[in-house]
Design a protein that fits this description.
Elements lengths: L1 E3 L2 E3 L12 E3 L6 E7 L6 H12 L2 E2 L5 H13 L9 E10 L1 H4 L13 E2 L30 E7 L9 E4 L11 E11 L2
Parallel strand pairs: 6-10
Antiparallel strand pairs: 1-2, 3-4, 4-10, 5-10, 6-7, 6-8, 8-9
């Protein structure tokens, strides 16, 4: 770090896995994010495996407005032509805590408090749920809607830029109105 009045210059010797990743400052150190898409819908479970096997990364959320904008804008740019869904979404970190799966109405399991699994993250101010979310119902298939997505408009606008929860095991919700075609991977820069 150097200072030349009136500017501080900080040199970072760490880097992301490759140029397709974008670096952000986090309290834990430089952090890299990459938003990837699939031609077919992708389940959160598959996205998690892909992040981990390609670069030893994990699904990541957004720690501030710059990360939120990057994830949201990049995911939307991957699908500039609307598909036949009310919303598309991008998977990111956030998994319902196991202690909340059967008792979502307890004090420690309401709203955002029901979710965990946010490595290297310290800020959740931009995690906004639309009315009716998080939805703790069990799907007819028997799966909980225990994973988080960031939605953007295709045909409707109420959930645009909002966090919703969905079943990790499926790319689309049961009515095929909201479908995930992308995911955000993250890793500490090395």
């Amino acid at each position: 770090m150097t200072y030349s009045d009136p500017t501080w210059t900080i040199s970072i010797t760490k880097s992301c896995p490759n140029s397709s990743w974008r670096m952000f400052a986090r309290p834990a150190g430089p952090f890299c994010i990459k938003v990837t898409s699939s031609n077919q819908g992708v389940s959160r479970n598959n996205a998690t495996v892909i992040c981990n096997t390609t670069t030893n990364a994990w699904l990541t959320g957004f720690n501030g407005i710059a990360e939120f904008n990057y994830i949201f804008d990049t995911a939307r740019s991957l699908f500039p032509t609307p598909l036949n869904y009310q919303y598309l979404s991008v998977w990111f970190s956030g998994l319902m805590r196991s202690t909340c799966a059967d008792t979502p109405q307890t004090t420690n399991c309401t709203g955002f408090a029901a979710f965990g699994e946010f490595p290297s993250q310290t800020n959740w101010d931009l995690y906004k749920f639309p009315s009716g979310y998080p939805n703790f119902t069990i799907l007819s298939s028997g799966y909980y809607q225990r994973c988080l997505q960031l939605a953007w408009s295709q045909e409707l606008t109420a959930y645009n830029g909002m966090v919703i929860n969905a079943a990790c095991e499926f790319a689309c919700n049961g009515e095929n109105k909201i479908c995930a075609f992308s995911y955000a991977c993250g890793v500490l820069a090395s």
